[in-house]
Amino acid sequence: MSHTYVVVAEVRGGGLRQVSLEALQAVSLIKEEGDSVAAVIIGSQITPLADELARYVLGQVYSVDHPDLENYNPETYFSVLSSILSKLNPSAVIFGHTAVGRDLAPMVAAHLDAGQISDVTAIDSEGNDLLFMRPLYAGKAFEQKKFVNTPQVITIRPNNISPAEVASTPADIIEIDYSPTSNLRSIVKDVIRKTSGKVDLTEAKIIVSGGRGVKSTEGFKPLEELAEVLHGAVGASRAACDAGYCDYSMQIGQTGKVVTPEIYIACGISGAIQHMAGMSQSHVIIAINKDPEAPIFKVADYGIVGDLFEVVPLLTEEFRKVLV
Amino acid sequence: MNIFVMMKQTFDTEERIVIQNGDVSDDSVKYVMNPYDEYAVEEAIRQKDQHGGTITVLSVGPVRTGEALRTALAMGADEAVLIQDELIPSDEFSVSKVLAAYLSKQSYDLIIGGNFSVDSGGGQVAIRVSQLLSIPHTSSITKLNISGTQATVQRDSEGDTETVEISLPALFTAQQGLNDPRYPSLPGIMKAKKKPFQTLTLADIGLSTSDIAAKTQRQSLTLPPARKAGQLLKGDAQQQAVELVHLLRTEAKLI
What we know:
By secondary structure, chain A is of the alpha/beta class. Chain A has helices spanning 18-30, 47-54, 74-88, 99-111, 221-229, 238-242, 273-279, 308-323; strands spanning 4-8, 11-12, 15-16, 36-43, 59-65, 92-96, 115-120, 122-126, 129-136, 141-147, 152-156, 172-175, 186-192, 206-210, 233-236, 263-267, 284-289, 302-305. In chain A, 27% of the residues lie in helices and 29% in strands. Chain A is globular, with a radius of gyration of 21 Å. The model of chain A has no long low-confidence stretch (mean pLDDT 95). In chain B, a hairpin with a 2-residue loop joins strand 10 and strand 11 (160-167). Strand 18 of chain A pairs parallel with strand 15 of chain B, so a sheet runs across the interface.
């Protein structure tokens, strides 16, 4: 029997999210010959993004384009998505493990009476079973899980599965009408985009992160400058957030976000267990700390014992030289 | 206002994980209330202070979960319900079915939970419950203002802030920054001992094992490969900076 797999693609900051292409790649790891793939994209003025998505999908792209869908609202997005899913009757629905995916996937799972495996970092097979790797305790341990039956709901952690490549023939785009309803129980009144133009922490390839040693809100300035040169994002430890130096949305750790960038630069972070859980899967870790005994040096590939306020601006200068 | 807080007991975040006989060892582990659920309990207390009502804290888990529920009572919740039955699988599908079955027989205006649990961390259960109860939800909130049957909330969406208007009854999940959770006071701890504490089984809430059979299974459990300490760079700050950029280009080949 052939199966249908649906990827729910995502728009952020006017572009198609990288994790949506990673979710498409995840489907190619799951599907067998003869199975079909569809992608859904929801938003406002997304024609170019639907076209771009279609280049990667061997199947159909369902595009739902309406001014009322510009901002994510669980009610509207769920109603759009569930009506598409009821036609496609998929074996699995795959999301990115993002602010939208984390919210929408459990709604779909509950609606379909389906199991869900969240935050998947790798997919393997063993006999006829597909095994989904995911972190526990923010990455202090990993479990492999399998589904007992279908339908299945999966969310994919950004930066772990390589993105899909351009398909041999682009997908057909099917436009789906959206008719606004007046009886919504929740309305998004306003969105303040503090992060516009910046890379999201979970998708960033390079993260410059500050801890207690940064000492103040102003202390994050040199870190921001370094991140800008590297086209990276700025993160923080719990100590820095609790001290009020920065917003909680920047926190990396077991409380906060778990990140897996290519380069993680820890500045003035001692390396509490709960912080290390959130970043120890990074490809290369660099630690800058005054205290040579700081636990962070035990996991760092490259360590600099020194004052971050001296070292970080010098690094910014050096990177600027080679990256220009 | 009837407020329900869904919560979980988890390992303290400073605990290291040890695998023994294919499972996570709980030998001499310190348990705490899931940190995100502390914000949920605190918010329930603040809403009750403003609007009156009753706070019931609710959990599905083993007997030890009672400690976390008692902590919530000591903080200021009024009643606790522990659904404790070995027949309930830890699968999110199963747990959410159990919670929703219980809640569907209650009268509620506000249901709050943590954004996710710091152990299994799937972040599914609360949102599944809102869907099963057919009530609207906002996840990852950092502000909650209630006026009559309307709430205005702020939602953290990867650093962006969304303002959402939502009608009650509704479900919310708490993000860091929502409030500053209190510590239980000594009189609070004494009072908690006398507050109603109900323990229910699967049969008590009218479900059978076939209703909640797990949809996913764990196949294996491993620890991540240990990282080795790398090299400390030598020289003064200028030399270290040059060396690091050089190593990232030549050795790590990332720049």
